[in-house]
Amino acid sequence: MPGTASSPQHPSSSPFGRRAALGLGIGAAAALTLPAQRASAAPVVGGARLGAAGVQVRRGAGVPKPPGLRARAWLVADNDSGEVLASFNAHKALAPASTLKMLFADTVLPKFAATDRHRVTAEDLAGIPYGSSLVGVQAGTTYTVHQLWQGVFLRSGNDAVHVLAHMNGGVEQTVAQMQARAKDLQAEDTHVVSPDGFDHKGQLSSAYDLTLFARAGLKNDDFRGYCATRVADFPAGGSKTFQIQNTDRLLTGQGVAPYQGLIGVKNGYTTNAGNTFTGAATRDGRTLLVTVMHPGSGAEVYEETAALLDWGFRAGGRAGAVGELVVPLSERPKESASPVAGAPAASSGGSAEGREGWALGGSAVVAALAGGSLVALRRRRRPTGRRRA
Questions:
Q1: Is 240 a catalytic residue?
Q2: Among 304, 305, 233, 294, which residue's Cα sits nearest to residue 265?
Q3: Is the domain of 34 the same as that of 162?
Q4: If we measure between CA atoms, which residue out of 204, 298, 307, 193 comes closest to residue 254?
Q5: Has UniProt tagged this entry with the keyword Transmembrane helix (predicted)?
Q6: Domain range for 139
Q7: Is residue 338 annotated as a catalytic residue, yes or no?
Q8: Is 351 a known active-site residue?
Q9: For 159-173, what is each residue's pLDDT tens digit?
């Protein structure tokens, strides 16, 4: 994500002579490009290793090797501490499908009471992308906010998403608020185009960002309750209802073995995005978060998630962190003067982060010396198919 330049050769007459000063000035001027190039590359949110190639893991004694997976990106983290225990392409920007609804819920869920009621209009349902997953919201029927959120979480209903977005001031305003929420969460890989996660050009997120959304959402009791609900009765007009089932197959056991201790969170699928899933599970008082993006079949996304959860629970507290899930900007102490998220802390050790910090500092010294030499010179010389989300 710096080129090098050698200092020109010069005679060894007087070390402080005009030609020596000229040599130092030119060499230092070339060195000045080094910090400028480093500074232009933003620090990796959560830590440098999360931006590195290949599987990232610290295997101490008794820590098993992570499973071999086909997913294009994945991440395992401890929900309580925020430590990232292992990852692969954590910051790779990919189409998120309906897992983006976690960010929608993070943004909109706190704005309405569960008991609020809304009579749906045809305008509320306008603009839903063709081929969307639907829960069956009908114009002219009155729904509670609680029922609409059940439609979002259980059936990934884009109709329920659009109704809630219109209640929130419209799709455009909701998208802007979701992008602002992503910025607050430091989810820098995420670009929101629609609130439902459907296939839209430029709609992107990453395994890291989706895990941030899940962690933030699980702090809300309503979010946690909805994503853990297996079945619910949904209005069908008048006094009639029909049953809806959660599409999270690790939760319900449909086609795959249900995962012991699973508490959610959200699955997704579109033709272009493929399968995505973020899951959370608790065992022995420990909660892990796993995100898997773009493996093969629909069953495979759940199988790979279960394999990563198994690995995380077996590793226990023995696997060292390769990064962290950062704290939202709005939750950081105001007096904190900490640098940009993911920037390496000062270190006297020989880590890569420490070496990079030394390089920046060393270049700054060279720059200062170069500035003095160039000033001296100036004083001596005058210048001259089917899709769902």
A1: no
A2: 305
A3: no
A4: 298
A5: yes
A6: 65-325
A7: no
A8: no
A9: 999 999 999 999 999
